[in-house]
């Protein structure tokens, strides 16, 4: 593996830099399974609150849900968009960062936050890591694959990259493979999803990006493509963000614009091999970097 690439992914972004919490992260477990389980027990995924039965349980995987404040029964990704902000909030609520954290002291964020938190901790330990965005074939409801973020890190001992899913470390999830070494054919990266729709390989309702508003098919794949591209460039944008020119066009692009994305997606199928070309596109095509947002 090219040393330049590994050094790049040791660097942090505004989303993965832990600031004063870097030393805290260095002292967390080095074993990836232990680290993921510990992290998983700090967080309640917001979808749990959609189930009234879960919200009223005193004993469940997340703890005593009846003690969780009503005002916190919403997605908190917008409040805590960075790994540093999530860890700061966890330690503010309870400085004991362990697997016995009570439900009332947990933060309610999605798989994106889980992915960047793990990446930030690994980076703090000097391990090359990056968040990845796409669609998990092992998370499927009503024949639809949902958007998902995971973490990819470089295992120096084995000399290869590994995919790990900290968000799915839960006894309720029965997965047939190792969540700490996910086979690459089990995760549908944004680029592959996008090209699949462009080549008529997938049906419209095959994938869904459950942002607000939800997007299906090619539009969902475009979101996954850009979230993954930005993550590969160490810029793990939040769900509110999408290139402004795409948002302005309501995802209805010209054939020339689609071909631009075709070229980008082809390179992203092998991001390490095409690292320099992807960086070149990042620098040259500012429209891929100018994001929409609440005030933009």
Structural description of this entry:
The protein contains eleven helices and six strands. By secondary structure, it is of the alpha+beta class. Strands 1, 2, 3, 4, 5 and 6 form a six-stranded mixed beta sheet that branches. It is globular. The model has no long low-confidence stretch (mean pLDDT 91).
Concise account of the structure shown:
With 296 residues, the protein is of the alpha+beta class. The protein has helices at 3-8, 22-26, 32-40, 52-55, 83-93, 111-124, 190-198, 217-232, 244-248, 255-268, 275-284, and strands spanning 129-141, 144-155, 160-164, 187-189, 207-209, 215-216.
Strand content: 5-15%
What is the number of beta strands?
6
One letter per element, helices H and strands E, the order comes to HHHHHHEEEEHEEHHHH
Given helix and strand content, the structural type is alpha+beta
Which tags fit this structure?
11 helices, 296 residues, globular
